[in-house]
Amino acid sequence: MINEFISLFFPDCCVHCNESLVDGEKHLCTSCRIQLPYSSNNEKEREVILERFVFENRPTDAYSLLKFHKKGITQSLLHELKYKGQQTIGNMMGEWLATRLIESNHWPGIDFIVPVPLHKSKLRQRGFNQSACFGQGIAEVSNTEMKPKLIRRIKPSDTQTKKSRLERWQNVESIFELTEPKLVNGSSILLIDDVLTTGATMEACIQCLKKGNPHEIYVAVVAVAQ
């Protein structure tokens, strides 16, 4: 009753169109949710993602929840997650992706989930890792354990914005460290991140994971930049 009374004066609003939300709606109004640019994760779309990885760091398969367009609904969701601390948005999107993959029989057989880590200075500044929020939602739906500390970022990197593919790769090369190689040995891993652009950061993580001799590495992201 108290929450309902408060909502009369301070209603929750859609993160994209700013319209007031009604009962049953969470973060997005029904109209905006219907317009979400979902990825189909069919063979063609997955191959487009895989082509962003160089051969030696190419994962077994790749999945995404949404397509990313500037000023689109996906950007609004990610902005609220990363810069306004709405961690439940990450959980929600992880739940959506896992549910869609399981229902479409695309869910890979994996041993655990690994989020792309933040450097400790960025983690301290932001207070959370948005990729881990996404991973938590995936873990809950798929009943799979997440290992948020399996990869450690040992030095910060500059922003990737406006960098070429080569510059992005050079920016993240050798910035990750594998903390438990024995755990990785023979395991199937799902590596997750928020937005995939060139794939340079995930390539660096894959290269790091391969030092532990995994069986297979899959990748999944909230969105793929178009």
What does this structure look like?
- With 226 residues, the chain is of the alpha/beta class.
- Helix content is 40%, strand content 17%.
- The protein contains ten helices and seven strands.
- It has helices at 2-9, 30-34, 43-50, 73-83, 87-103, 120-126, 130-142, 165-172, 181-184, 200-209, and strands at residues 61-68, 112-115, 145-146, 151-153, 176-178, 188-196, 216-225.
- It has a five-stranded parallel sheet, with helices on both faces.
- Helix 4 packs across helix 5 (87-103).
- The chain is globular and about 50 Å long.
- The chain starts with a helix and ends with a strand.
- The relative contact order is 0.16.
Summarize the structure.
It is built from 10 helices and 7 strands. It is an alpha/beta fold. A 5-stranded parallel sheet has the order 1-7-6-2-3, sandwiched between helices. A two-stranded antiparallel sheet has the order 4-5.
| Radius of gyration based on Cα positions | 18 Å
Give the rounded overall mean pLDDT: 90
Name the poorly predicted regions. 5-9
Assembly status: single chain
Percentage beta strand: 15-25%
Strand order of the largest sheet: 1-7-6-2-3
State the end-to-end distance. 44 Å
Order of helices and strands: HHHEHHEHHEEHEHEHE
Molecular shape: globular
**Continuous helix count:** 10
Question: Helix amount, in percent?
Answer: 40-55%
Q: How many distinct beta strands?
A: 7
Q: Sheet bearing the most strands, described?
A: 5 strands, parallel
Main structural class: alpha/beta
